[in-house]
Specification:
Layout: H1 6-12, H2 14-23, E1 45-47, E2 51-52, E3 55-57, E4 62-64, E5 68-69, E6 74-75, E7 80-81, E8 86-87, E9 92-93, E10 98-99, E11 104-105, E12 110-111, E13 116-117, E14 122-123, E15 128-129, E16 134-135, E17 140-141, E18 146-147, E19 152-153, E20 158-159, E21 164-165, E22 170-171, E23 174-175
Parallel strand pairs: 3-6, 4-7, 5-8, 6-9, 7-10, 8-11, 9-12, 10-13, 11-14, 12-15, 13-16, 14-17, 15-18, 16-19, 17-20, 18-21, 19-22, 20-23
Antiparallel strand pairs: 1-4, 2-3
Helix pairs in contact: 1-2
Length: 181
């Protein structure tokens, strides 16, 4: 169990690394001209430009073709949303965050800058994962829960509904509902 930033994840994951390398060649958002955007065959990867079914997706975000981005969702600059992941209504995936394959981010939830949500993890409705936090693979963050910045929730761990995990804390097992870790 090691903590990986979004960039370290992208380097380990070949498809994410290719997407980030291509995204770095893009001009700043204020200088983007749709006619000048280079076209590249990403096979099943889809690089968004403005909106997708009412969701707002930054020009440099990379969203897998099988991912579900629901209306009102926001996906930030350089963020990566993996294979069959779901970002719920009104949820925010902030800049350079990574939502792993088959992960679910509930309606109104927020995944902070540079945060990583692991494979098949769940972030509940209205939950908040702070900047540079890491939610391990198959982990569960309950509805309304808060995971502080630079915190780590281990693989297969459970953070209950409305629980608060402090800044820089490590959750190796389970945190029941409503306590502060």
């Amino acid at each position: 169990m090691t903590f990986r930033t979004a960039i370290e994840h992208a380097i380990a994951c070949g498809a994410c690394y290719d997407a980030l390398q291509w995204a770095r060649t893009m001009p700043p958002e204020d200088e983007l001209n749709p006619a000048d955007i280079p076209r590249k065959d990403w096979s099943e990867w889809w690089v968004a430009r403005t909106t997708r079914d009412g969701a707002i997706i930054a020009p440099t975000a990379v969203v897998h073709a099988t991912a579900g981005i629901y209306p009102g969702a926001h996906v930030g600059v350089g963020a990566v949303v993996g294979d069959r992941a779901h970002v719920g209504d009104g949820a925010h995936v902030d800049d350079w965050a990574v939502v792993g394959a088959r992960a679910r981010v509930g309606a109104g939830a927020r995944v902070g800058d540079w945060a990583v949500v692991g494979t098949q993890s769940y972030v509940g409705v209205g939950a908040h994962v702070g900047a540079r936090a890491r939610v391990g693979d198959w982990a569960h963050v309950g509805d309304g829960a808060v995971v502080g910045a630079r915190s780590y929730v281990g693989d297969r761990s459970y953070v209950g509904d409305w629980a608060h995990v402090g800044v820089g804390a490590r959750v190796g097992d389970d945190a029941p509902s409503r306590p502060t870790a």
